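User: Quick sanity check before I run a bigger batch. Here is a single chain. Can you write out its predicted 3D structure?
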Amino acid sequence: MKHSPLTPAIVGTALLLALSLAAGPQARGGADPPLAREVAAVGMTVANMERSIAFFTGVLTFEKVSDVEVAGGEHERLLGLFGVRMRVVRLRLGTEQIELTEYLTPRGRPVPVDSRSNDRWFQHVAIIVSDMDAAYARLREHHVEHASPEPQRLPDWNPNAGGIKAFYFKDPDGHPLEILQFPAGKGDPRWQAAGRLFLGIDHTAIVVGDTPTSLRFYRDTLGLRVAGESTNYGPEQERLNNVFGARLHITALRAARGPGIEFLEYLSPRNGRLAAGIQPNDLAHWETTVATGDEDLALERFLMQRVMLVSPSIARLGQPCRAGLKACSHELGFAKALLVHDPDGHAVKVVQR
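Assistant: Done. Predicted structure follows.
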């Protein structure tokens, strides 16, 4: 059965603007510290938690960090959903974490079967491998669904991407994932380590409609720094993304810690569909969790920016994790949070521990 693209819906969004702060910290000469101190996790909504745990731990060798079930009014406030009960599992690969959420109630919609890599709701995580041939063989052994026809080696004429080997595939719910191998001299030096096949997560990639607009949110408001840019095209890129005629402007951003966030702006073809109407309980939902500092006014300061809110106000889930406390009083590991949308509809969860 063919699913139509997700339709627009209004889900507790609002615009708040403070003229004195709307320009963002860079435009104000860096008066405030960056809001995002760390990209703490990348999350996705799953239909069957046990199936997803088996996939990520059994095939990709992630390790379970935590497994909790939560419900209540503050979670409803955070997500803009009523009647929420969900199971949340954190998994770690290397030093990076992903967060899987199964909504026991209310259940959401599946990923549209005709999703394409240039649709605006596209997001993936790039898992670094030490040996592409061995990693691809392992995925084939476990009958993982292809998104690319086979691994691609990006051409040497591209100075920033030449020699990188990459392959797109899907998890059991249809979420796109990538394995990536850096050649010597590219990427973080720790990605050259031997001894393990799956090493960690380098970045999460999101499709954006306009790079300058996205920079105003991620660089100027959140405070991430631009780490690099490239323009990728050619038959290898087309096969990797499985988009004929793909020509992408790619911008990499990073916080002080955690995986990067990579913009994929399709210069062609520009027929990707908008991400309007995706709810947190829909399987097409991804969210990137960024952690602020421990100052009391971090989230209040963020509320004074021009942002589109999913949460109608700050969700207060427990006591902050301050020096001298053994642990947070809330099992998800943060005390306050807001869920917001970036200019293209990608979800970003801003948390204070």
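The helical segments are 49-58, 73-79, 132-141, 211-221, 235-241, 298-303.

User: Great, the batch can go ahead then.
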